[in-house]
Amino acid sequence: MARNLGSRGHIPSAANAIGAAGILAAMRNRLIIVTAMLSVLTSCTQQQQSPDQIRERAATATAELKTGAKAVAEGVREGWNRDRPIDLNKASREQLATLPGISPERADRIIAARPYDSTQQLVSRHLLMPKQYDAIKSLITVRN
Q: Which of 35, 68, 73, 102 could serve as a FRET partner for 43 with CA atoms 20 to 30 Å apart?
């Protein structure tokens, strides 16, 4: 059984782990104190806000968070699917239109001709020319 040896050739003690935890606790406490001090300072410099002003600020912040959350979700979805081929039977118009040489109108025609048994049906059904198909064949798939 292999042992984890420290830099001096001995087994690291529990005191090292406790020391690290203590440092983190001290940093957290300092952060709390600084945050509290900043809160006090900003509240001293601001005038008392009416409930309507508070409600408006809350609505604005919520709208900004909603927009940000939507952008994050779209970014996650895009990142998740970036290296995956697009399924001709399930892809949206927007997804198909991201393919080289595929306009939104051509994407509509591809969607209207569903279902597909193979990607080559884009050529056999005269939706794409062979050269256009060659440009995207590694980016598309058909899953049934």
A: 68
